[in-house]
From TrEMBL:
Residues 12-391 form the Major facilitator superfamily (MFS) profile domain. The lineage of its organism: Bacteria, Pseudomonadati, Pseudomonadota, Gammaproteobacteria, Enterobacterales. Gene3D superfamilies: MFS general substrate transporter like domains. It comes from the Bacteria. InterPro entries: MFS, MFS_dom, MFS_trans_sf. The keyword Ribonucleoprotein does not apply. The chain crosses the membrane at residues 12-30, 50-70, 77-95, 101-123, 135-160, 166-185, 217-239, 245-264, 276-293, 299-318, 339-359, 365-384. Keywords: Cell membrane, Membrane, Transmembrane, Transmembrane helix. This is MFS transporter. PANTHER family: MAJOR FACILITATOR SUPERFAMILY (MFS) PROFILE DOMAIN-CONTAINING PROTEIN (PTHR42910:SF1), TRANSPORTER SCO4007-RELATED (PTHR42910). GO terms for molecular function: transmembrane transporter activity.
Amino acid sequence: MKNTHHGLSPALIVLMSIATGLAVASNYYAQPLLDTIANAFSLSINQAGFIVTAAQLGYAAGLLLLVPLGDMFERRSLIVFMTLLAAGGMVITALSQTLWMMILGTALTGLFSVVAQILVPLAATLAEPAKRGKVVGTIMSGLLLGILLARTVAGLLASMGGWRTVYWVASVLMVFMAVALWRGLPKVKSETHLNYPQLLSSVFGLFIKNPLLRTRALLGCLTFANFSILWTSMAFLLASPPFNFSEATIGLFGLAGAAGALGARPAGGFADKGKAHLTTTIGLVLLLLSWIAVAMGQYSIIALIIGILVLDLTVQGVHITNQTVIYRMMPDARNRLTAGYMTSYFIGGAAGSIISASAYQHAGWNGVCAAGAIMALLNLVVWWRGYHRQP
């Protein structure tokens, strides 16, 4: 593999963190706007929730079909091209006049915004081995900050110029980011000699042969389902009585999640020091407990904010730990390892969106919290029934 550890400067880490956050944010601008979009297109809660689900399913497809290409092609060109295509998807969303056109735009954006998951293993490749977990933690903090701050930015922009403004501004930012990445990234190409069908089949081969990857992928799936269960329905809770918050106010709750995400940065460093087991165990226990505060959030904004902080801290901490552990394996296959792990991760996110919208429609906020707590408990059961022995 042609690369050098000297190619990863602090400035490049910052650029890659921002690019990762901006790319993945494009899948989440809709969440604080769901109530507004539902009214604009005369949609039910379930139909509006499917907009988020479509983005996540597109993302899952991109993870499986496109991310492995990072082990095949020169990565800077691939990253820039995919960034531009993701911007094109947001233009379609901004122009949409029907639900299906909007779903097409969000699905295409999701498909190509997996460029974020090519940037993460690239950072792991360029980093010094002793600092790999710390670098991955920094980049992944950028990713989760993008997911969470997307809600704040979307709410503010929508309050100033309508929901379509969000997608016009975001598409322009993605074009500027493509230019910055072209100028800032080094050229890195893997020496793999697999063709595309072999590349895809090898992702499944890695799952079959590697119990550690299966373990961490399942943990990631269930953990991100928790995250999605919380955030998909929160706009409906906060837009209804007794809160009746505006889009801008709802978006501000992303700041609480962002604070939680930043708090999880040290998880990669703990994994570098051999404490991945401890980080995972503590994270999963706190994840379950966070739903108590979230459930109380329908009566108390303070309780809701505490729940958001703890849930996002633990989701991000477990996620960083998972990725740090799997990146120790097979350096020449990091994009395929990422594809396998993150496909499972975002399938969990898509499932969480469906579960959340359905739970809210049929049982309100209590139903959402019950679904989240059950998912968190299932994750703990999986971990303690033997998977906790994995590194």
